[in-house]
Amino acid sequence: MERYKLLMDPVYDEFILVERGSPVEKALKSSLLQRLRYIRQLGPCYLVYPGAEHTRFQHSLGVMWLVRKTLNFLKLKGFSPEPLTENALLLAGLLHDLGHSPFSHALEGVIVPESHEKITVEAFKLLAQEVGLERELTEEVLSIFTKSHSQPYTYQLISSQLDCDRLDYLKRDAFYTGVSFGRIEVNRILISAIVEGGELLWSYKGFNALESYVMSRYQMYWAVYFHKVNIAAQVLLEKIVKRMRELLLAGEKLCCDPQLARTLREGDTENLLRLTDGNVVVSIYNCQNSKDPILSDLSKRFIKRELFKTVEVKPSRLIELREAVERAGYNPEYYFEVVEPSKVAYSYYSPESEQLIKVKLEEGVAELSTVAPTDAVKALSRKVSKTYAVIPKELHPHSNAQPPSLQS
Questions:
Q1: What does the buried/exposed string (b/e) look like for 296-331 if buried means 16 or more CB atoms within 10 Å of the residue's CB?
Q2: Which of 10, 113, 280, 377 has minimal Cβ neighbours within 10 Å of its Cβ?
Q3: Are residues 29 and 158 in the same domain?
Q4: Span of the secretion signal (predicted)?
């Protein structure tokens, strides 16, 4: 085993193998990938589920490992990619989240107004230079990230409605939050993978596991990702950073982390790639003593876990609620937010998507929900539309708390 580096993964209860001297090992040593050790996978969700302290680094290793397993299963069926493509797939799995902001999706597009996918492309180019990846391999990985590869299965394995990314984060997030919904049969699903005509298909023999995946995905979204307290924590975090930026651009001096301050003022991605959760947390701690009453109050709420309240409302009540927040003396720009879960970063399965889960039958190929013996998958894949208003908890009808004195 001296040929391999062994990394124990408690989620799969096995060693992840990394070949010494391989492109994957080179990437593992890069500062850009090591940064992900300090970014939580689920952002501020640890304020809801205390065990949710796992990182983007752990998830990245897991995705790479599932790609490796899938390729091994495909080889047993006679499909074997070229060595260049195989190395590129492993790297794409490992590096697909390089561009995440601190606190992951909670601050995506907030610190820097770009998606993590777009930043990942730029970050990978920097990493390729840092560790000396060959140009041909670099171009192959980029074609997977940009979904321009001639073989669609390559990017479908990394980014589609059923991919190694989703399989790992569902299982990993369930493991660390302690919920049972995401405990899916990963190996049973992966061994069902088929590549035909360059497309990724799934054997009908694995249908029960595929159906369970869709059900688990739906349950995880509402129990974890769309949890009302998690939504409130994310909104509060976003408002704090928004206020920091406004004050910094107005020339105010804040006791926040210098690297975060520079990034908020300049808005460039290279600065973002030097930030971790730690930069943000230190800044929030320091800003509890800010002279600005709004920033001070928001920061204290986050540190003391005195979060906003997330209330499900009818869309027709939103204007009324916003006006109520303003009448109570709050600046609604910082103390009111509308959240529609169906429009956020996480989403459950949609048969209307361009990238369907395609099942291989004896008579051809069909979309997953059309071959199910019951309507369970079809029912679960219908979009559930909810509208939430996020407001200070003391404005909730059942709260006895008194509003603080604030000046906007």
A1: bbbbbbbeeeebbbbbebeeeeeeebbebbeeeebb
A2: 113
A3: yes
A4: none
Q: What are phi and psi of 14, to 5 degrees?
A: -155, 170
Q: How many domains does the chain have?
A: 2
Indicate if 188 and 272 belong to the same structural domain. Answer: no
The secondary structure of residue 393, as a DSSP letter, is G
187 and 243 in a common domain: no
What's 322's domain CATH number? 1.20.1250.30
Q: How far apart are CA 406 and CA 408, in angstroms?
A: 6
14 CA to centre of own chain? 24
Residues 141, 189, single domain; the answer is: yes
Residue 278 CA: distances (Å) to CA of 5, 210, 211, 281 = 28, 38, 39, 5
For residues 287 and 175, membership in a common domain is answered with: no
190 vs 408: CA distance, rounded Å? 54
> Could you report the per-residue pLDDT of 325-346, keeping only the tens digit for each?
999 999 999 999 999 987 554 5
Residue 401 lies in a domain: no
User: What phi and psi values does residue 324 have, to the nearest 5 degrees?
Assistant: -65, -40
Per residue in 15-49, pLDDT (tens digit) is: 999 999 999 999 999 999 999 999 999 999 999 99
Pull the structure tokens for residue 121. Answer: 């492309």
Are 319 and 189 found together in one domain?
no
| CATH at 372 | 1.10.3210.10
For the CA atoms of the chain, what is the radius of gyration? 23
Q: What's the chain's length in residues? A: 408
